[in-house]
Amino acid sequence: MKKVYLIFLLFYTTLIYGQSGTSEFTSTGTFTVPDGVTTILVEMIGAGGHGGYNGTGGGGGGGYTSSNLSVTPGATIDIQIGIPGSGAVLGTTKIDNTFYATGGENGVSVPNPEIGGGGAGGVGFGGNVANFAGGNGGGGYYTYFGGGGGGAAGADANGGVGGNTIAWVGICLTPGGDGGLSGGSPGGNGGKGAGFIDTFCATTDPAGNGNNYGAGGGGGNGNGGGPGNGAGGYCRISWCAVDVTVVSNGTSITANATDVTYQWIDCTTGAIIDGATSQSYSPLATGNYAVIVNDGLCADTSECVFIEIIIEDIQSYYENLVRVSPNPFESTIHIDGLPNQQFQFAIINNLGQTVWSGNQLLDDYTFLADGIYLLHIANEVFEINKMLFKK
């Protein structure tokens, strides 16, 4: 029988894998770039405006901006967080004067019989990923009902406009204007305007505050029901850090990153290797191999690892290595010793008939009659047979 010779090149090699991180700011502060990080994603939302008093408009929602920035490890970045209810300028969340999200304006009153006074929404400026505007506040009816606060802009869209209230027609039973919806996380929904739950303007249906982050507050009513406050500004910084690990013993490669997905590739062709999606990979041929790992935020590719395999008879090697258990079996079959490659399996009865085939073993083979079978295992490199006993 020919033997299999595997050259075991015991060495250490480095694999790069993605490791995500986030840092959130709800007050002004400083961010220090972690070691190994050269790119960050910065998302910012301006603060929401307050609603006005006495049946006036809702506050505007803050704008949203996001950008991928090149950074230097260890560098510091000053972040200013917008103050709610302070208008477009002081409500601005920013890193510098070229990349920022302005705050929403406060609601004001307009004279009867008009409905209006909603604060203008903020805007996003300078982002190379997205720039969205916050929703304007809804209109109030002076001395009676408040308008809804504007929704903050978010990562997906502009913030929704706050709802207008209704004009007074002799009956106070109205909840006030609806709050506008956010443009997506991390922006918040606007607060509702103040109204009444009775017909005589005695019992307030309160205004709502803007939800975190950046949403406008609802306008107040004209009988002691105060306005809602806008929500504060916000900044989130996300990054992928580079880490290294030792992984190869010469015939198999292992990535030590956890809570990620794996896809091994052939470095010579750049093609993915079908079925090679486990943490470890055992090549069947000499070559350079790498792994792509993805944690849902980051996707990184390792350095290529060279493995040399000299094989005279790989089929005999795996015939001796592969074990099937339990044998005899009743319902399930387990195979040990196969490399993490894609295989085609078939179960053949003693008449030479294929009674089942597939590229993955089933969890239950109770449909097979008791007896003797061959389990055929094949891929593009080798094929082997293992005798099975079903009881």
Which features does this protein show?
single chain; 391 residues; mainly beta; Immunoglobulin-like; 3 domains; five-stranded antiparallel β-sheet; four-stranded antiparallel β-sheet; 2 helices; 26 strands; 3% helix; elongated
Mind explaining what this structure looks like?
This protein has 3 domains: 4-16 and 244-310, Sandwich (Immunoglobulin-like); 17-243, no CATH class; 314-390, Immunoglobulin-like. The protein has helices at 87-90, 314-321; strands at 4-5, 17-25, 29-32, 39-45, 64-70, 76-79, 93-96, 99-101, 124-125, 130-132, 195-196, 204-205, 234-243, 253-254, 261-266, 280-281, 287-294, 299-301, 305-307, 310-311, 323-325, 334-336, 344-348, 354-358, 371-378, 383-390. The chain has 391 residues and is mostly beta strands. The longest helix is centred in the C-terminal third of the chain and has 8 residues, at 314-321. 3% of the residues lie in helices and 30% in strands. Strand 21 and strand 22 (334-336) form a beta hairpin. The protein has a 5-stranded antiparallel beta sheet with strand order 2-13-4-5-10, with no helix packed on it. Strands 15, 17, 18 and 19 form a 4-stranded antiparallel beta sheet that branches.
Number of strands: 26
* Main β-sheet, spatial strand arrangement: 2-13-4-5-10
H-E string: EEEEEEHEEEEEEEEEEEEEEHEEEEEE
Low-confidence blocks of residues = 1-18
Radius of gyration, taken over Cα atoms and rounded to an integer in Å: 32 Å
> What structural class do you assign from the helix and strand content?
mainly beta
Shape: elongated
What is the total number of structural domains?
3
Q: Estimate what percentage of residues fall within beta strands.
A: 25-35%
Distance between the termini: 33 Å
Mean pLDDT: 89
Question: Total helix count?
Answer: 2
Q: Which range best describes the helical content: under 10%, 10-25%, 25-40%, 40-55%, 55-70% or over 70%? A: under 10%
